User: Which sequence fits this backbone?
């Protein structure tokens, strides 16, 4: 079976601006695939390239194995759900959902039947005759999904469709989107800047930065095994400490930092003498009794008690802030602001990555 | 003379000064607070606005029209007999339009009736032509032109209208007359041996009229299309719609109020145009407005002129209302 979407050396430039650089990617049929990145990273451009609104400056887009060069968005087996949904306000809910079928010349009775089924699928059976403006945010969302599914695309593209919803509805829609995807079994390509969305819904995630796909992997991989400093810093909270590698020991390495000698895993095989960044997740931090020397010490700036976890912000001697999420120990004595505190971590929980030159 | 000048300019000035005086008074005393019209503006200013706008609407707009309507139902009399025993309400001016005589109803006044229907009919055609010219341009300006291109286009559209209407009409005459530039080029190129009588065939008139109120069409259209979310066009395209389907079922329905507003303006103005028909009309052309004009200034029959003008006005308004109704638009919508 051909891949759902294949990108081969895709470049998109606008004048001098490189929006997407050398994207190479294979998305499998039936996959829920997310592009995650900050705004302006090129993820929307890439989505519009797949849907056909933008022709790549260089490279090839294949959908279901077929080269899409010169094929317009109205001729591609994709359907796009816009960030603002772009429902047609002058049409009823049913007319919106049936629009794609109407332009395809599907006979009226067949169209009505299909629209009715879709309305039931998205739990809007009673609302077919309504104007779009009479619906709630979540209902509009479901109309947009039904309208896109009506044309039976092989790939559904979603451009941050949940960003306009409130938190609770957003969380509910995540589960619903995932359920719909499982039910219809087609490929979903989802664009978001919200790592929570990407991590909870996706089979795989491509993390993008400045037009470049930095890493592709499942949620665990991009969170626990980031391969670039950007991915380590963007996905989840992370503390980073710069330094220079002084020793290597198998999969581990030691580095010299302004906060003393620290060590961590060395997955990208950095050599002695190389500039590096050490990443430690706040939840990997542990409280240490005064006097121990592994880790670092600093002044407690802020303590936020959340019950199961307590977030502590520390200012270390370089002036940098270090975050720690302490938890799991009900008997733990909470630090107080102003207190001098020692934090440590297990070297296996820390990660060493090459320091990018421009930083 | 200087007394009337002082009145014409002094009175509005006094009104404006009075208004700012009121505003200053209210600011000091702090009358204005939220809520309805009078709460928002304060009683003195609220009252003033109602009276001022009421006065303006009544004396400047309504009263002259009413005077014309009244006049249209009166016979033509020498000034000495006005208000006398012969000054009775009569339909003779309307009778003249239909039958060419103030008394007999034997024969239809075909000349004027034909001119009337020709004017309405040609105005409809010209409105449609205007729409056909302006829609693609307005769509381009509103949806796909870059900011720089848009500025250039707007400038190119507006600049020619700095030239006044009569001059523009005469320019068309120069262009299209028998010895005009177009005929010289046609004959020079060997395309015709005789000059083509563009003006006699009313080509000049229709061109001039089509051109005269183009802006009245393009701006309402542009405004309406500009408010359309580009994503809707893209969504329709993404769902497989060919371009004509997008225009017919997404853009046009959205732009309906703008289309109605533009078409109404162009139709009304074209039907009531005077300069272009006077300057560009051929010898056999009978546009209705010059006939109205002639009633006033050639026949010196003001009551008859008023009746003719009133017929045109009412017909145009009725026509527009019927068309709006047919497209299920309310009058309020076209002002959006």
Assistant:
């Amino acid at each position: 079976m051909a891949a759902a979407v294949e990108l081969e050396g895709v470049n998109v430039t606008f004048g001098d601006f490189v929006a997407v650089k050398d994207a190479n990617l294979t998305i499998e049929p039936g996959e829920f695939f997310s592009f995650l990145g900050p705004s302006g990273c090129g993820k929307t451009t890439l989505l519009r390239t797949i849907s056909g609104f933008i022709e790549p400056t260089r490279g090839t887009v294949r959908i279901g194995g077929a080269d899409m060069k010169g094929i317009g968005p109205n001729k591609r087996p994709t359907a796009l759900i816009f960030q603002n949904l772009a429902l047609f306000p002058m049409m009823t809910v049913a007319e919106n959902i049936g629009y794609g079928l109407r332009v395809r010349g599907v006979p009226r009775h067949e169209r009505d039947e299909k629209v009715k089924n879709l309305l039931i699928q998205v739990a809007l059976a009673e609302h077919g005759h309504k104007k779009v403006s009479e619906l709630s945010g979540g209902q509009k969302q479901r109309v947009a999904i039904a309208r896109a599914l009506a044309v039976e695309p092989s790939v559904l593209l979603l451009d941050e469709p949940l960003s306009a919803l409130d938190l609770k509805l957003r969380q509910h829609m995540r589960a619903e989107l995932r359920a719909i995807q499982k039910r219809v079994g087609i490929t979903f390509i989802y664009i978001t800047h919200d790592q929570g969305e990407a991590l909870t819904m996706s089979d795989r995630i491509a993390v993008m930065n400045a037009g470049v796909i930095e890493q592709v992997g499942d949620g665990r991989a991009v969170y626990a095994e980031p391969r670039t400093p950007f991915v380590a810093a963007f996905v989840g909270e992370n503390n980073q400490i710069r330094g220079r590698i002084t020793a290597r020991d198998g999969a581990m390495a030691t580095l010299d930092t302004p906060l003393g000698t620290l060590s961590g895993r060395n997955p990208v095989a950095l050599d002695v003498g190389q500039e590096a960044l050490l990443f430690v997740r706040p939840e990997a931090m542990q409280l240490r009794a005064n006097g121990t020397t592994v880790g670092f010490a600093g002044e407690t700036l802020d303590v936020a008690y959340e019950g199961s976890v307590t977030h502590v912000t520390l200012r270390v001697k370089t002036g940098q802030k270090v975050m720690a999420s302490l938890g799991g120990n009900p008997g733990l004595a909470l630090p107080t602001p102003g207190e001098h505190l020692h934090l440590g971590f297990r070297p296996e929980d820390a990660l060493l990555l090459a320091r990018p030159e421009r930083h | 003379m200087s007394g009337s000048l002082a009145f014409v300019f002094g009175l509005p000035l006094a009104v404006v000064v009075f208004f700012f005086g009121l505003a200053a008074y209210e600011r000091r005393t702090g009358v204005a607070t939220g809520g309805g019209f009078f709460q928002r503006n304060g009683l003195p200013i609220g009252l003033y606005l109602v009276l001022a706008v009421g006065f303006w609407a009544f004396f400047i707009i309504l009263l002259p029209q009413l005077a014309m309507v009244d006049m249209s139902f009166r016979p033509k009399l020498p000034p000495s007999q006005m208000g006398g025993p012969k000054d009775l309400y009569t339909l003779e001016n309307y009778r003249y339009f239909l039958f060419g005589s103030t008394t007999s109803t034997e024969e239809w006044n075909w000349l004027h009736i034909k001119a009337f229907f020709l004017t309405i009919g040609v105005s409809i055609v010209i409105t449609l032509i205007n729409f056909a010219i302006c829609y693609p341009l307005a769509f381009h300006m509103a949806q796909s032109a870059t900011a720089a291109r848009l500025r250039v286009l707007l400038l190119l559209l507006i600049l020619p209208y700095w030239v006044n209407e009569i001059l523009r009409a005469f320019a068309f005459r120069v262009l299209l007359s028998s010895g005009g530039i177009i005929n010289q080029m046609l004959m020079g190129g060997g395309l015709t041996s005789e000059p083509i009588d563009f003006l006699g065939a009313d080509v000049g008139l229709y061109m001039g009229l089509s051109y005269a109120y183009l802006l009245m069409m393009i701006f309402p259209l542009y405004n309406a299309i500009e408010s359309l979310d580009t994503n809707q066009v893209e969504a329709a395209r993404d769902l497989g719609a060919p371009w004509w389907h997008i225009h017919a079922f997404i853009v046009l329905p959205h732009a309906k109020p703008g289309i109605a507003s533009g078409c109404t303006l162009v139709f009304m103005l074209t039907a009531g145009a005077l300069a272009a028909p006077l300057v560009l009309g051929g010898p056999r052309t009978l546009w209705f407005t010059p006939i109205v004009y002639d009633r006033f200034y050639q026949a010196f029959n003001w009551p008859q002129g008023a009746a003719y003008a009133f017929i045109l006005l009412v017909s145009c308004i009725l026509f527009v209302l019927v068309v709006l109704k047919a497209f299920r638009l309310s009058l309020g919508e076209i002002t959006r």
